[in-house]
Amino acid sequence: VEYPLLQLKDVSATERRNRIRKYLDIVGLSKFAGHRPNQLSGGQRQRVAIARALATQAKIVLADEPTANLDHNTGGGILELMKEINRRHKTTFIFSTHDQRVMTMADRLVKIEDGRLTPT
Questions:
Q1: What is the 3-state secondary structure (H, E, C) of 26-72?
Q2: Is 95 left (phi over 0), alpha (psi -120 to 50) or beta?
Q3: Do the beta carbons of residue 33 and residue 83 sit within 8 Å?
Q4: How far apart are CA 71 and CA 91, in angstroms?
Q5: Distance between CA atoms of 59 and 47, rounded to whole angstroms?
Q6: How many CA atoms lie within 13 A of 37 on its CB side?
Q7: Measuring CA to CA, how many Å separate 79 from each of 23, 27, 31, 111, 118?
Q8: Which residues pair with 19 in a beta bridge?
Q9: Global pTM value
Q10: Residues 62, 51: contact at Cβ < 8 Å?
Q11: Spatial separation of the C-alpha atoms in residues 79 and 84, rounded to whole Å
């Protein structure tokens, strides 16, 4: 979660720690702050990726197949989390996906086939 913040020279070490804590808490992983990636499940890794994107205080997050490689329940939990973050923090998520669950949960759906927008 800290890595992208290290690239922002105007973010102090204290501010980095505060953001890490805040965003790990938002994604429900505060107790895993000291864990390495290989010590986390696929769903936990997805949550870390979300926290990492949010830590830079991005208003838009691009998510390529966010439920890929996750079981049905974990994928659903990730989608619910993103929906909650969207509502609570006004973060826009843009998904590239083939997963019908992602499409169903989206507030707006734009389909592209063969490089062209198609009616939904």
A1: HCCCHHHCCCCHHHCCHHHHHHHHHHHHHHCCCCEEEEECCCCCCCH
A2: beta
A3: no
A4: 25
A5: 17
A6: 6
A7: 16, 12, 21, 19, 24
A8: none
A9: 0.77
A10: no
A11: 9
> Going by C-beta distance under 8 Å and a sequence separation of 6 or more, which residues neighbour residue 61?
50, 53, 54, 91, 92, 93, 94
pLDDT by residue for the chain (120 residues), tens digit each? Answer: 999 999 999 999 999 999 999 999 988 999 999 999 899 998 899 889 989 988 998 899 999 998 887 888 888 888 888 898 899 889 999 999 989 989 999 999 999 889 999 877
The number of residues making up the chain comes to 120
